[in-house]
Amino acid sequence: QVYHPPGQLGGATLFHLYVPILGSFVIGMIALCSLPGPLASYREQGILRRPSTTPAPRAWVLAAQVLINLVLVVIGLVVVGVVAYGLAAPQEPGGLVLSVALSIAALFAIGLLIAAVMPTARGAAALGSLTFFPLIFFAGLWVPRQVMPTVLQHISNYTPLGASVQAVQDSMQGAFPPAASLLVLAGYAVVFALLAWRLFRWE
User: Fold this and answer.
1) What is the DSSP string of 133-167?
2) Neighbours of 82 (CB within 10 A)
């Protein structure tokens, strides 16, 4: 195990720090890079318009796509979780479940907004990637949050993946997630879900 000097990572291993980051990476990648493309493609091909001529509600198409991607997230998190639990069980399981649920809600809401406004699958994929990579930077994938400059740490705290990593890390280390991180995630989930609902175009 690789240790960073105590004043920067607090004596924790990089492996301990990166398990939550990898979990957030899974959520962000699927929500922003996998979810929007097919939905925009359905609109581009007229598939979203066709259910209006059948008894089946059009919303079922959206629900099915969200469910598929949610299953992918769960599978990815289980893989990351097996590695994490091989290291140590989370010390605040209730906080961990809440953090993960809010993280999924926040990132899926952003992904759905991208799907709502982009007219083509290619455009949705491009915007999803452009959104994902800055967010995963602030989550600490390249530079752990603990060693970021203070300004970048403050910015990270108000990004969905930065708040997600903070909440999950605290849960794994025995503390209930900070209210600020949970409120940030809940705020993204509510605001972006409402925007996606208001702006979604079926054609």
Assistant:
1) HHHHHHTTSSS-GGGS-HHHHHHHHTSHHHHHHHH
2) 9
- Asked whether the beta carbons of 141 and 73 are under 8 A apart, the reply is no
Nearest one of 191, 180, 187, 171 to 24, comparing CA atoms: 171
pLDDT at 14: 57
Contact assessment for residue 145 and residue 167, using Cβ atoms and an 8 Å cutoff: no
pTM: 0.86
Is 13 strand, coil or helix?
strand
> Which residues make Cβ contacts (< 8 Å) with residue 197, sequence separation at least 6?
116
Crossing angle, helix 59-87 and helix 93-117, to 10 degrees? 140
pLDDT digits (tens, 9 = 90+) for 68-109: 999 999 999 888 877 666 656 667 789 999 999 999 999 999
For the record, the structure tokens of 6 come out as 């105590």
d(CA 27, CA 34): 10
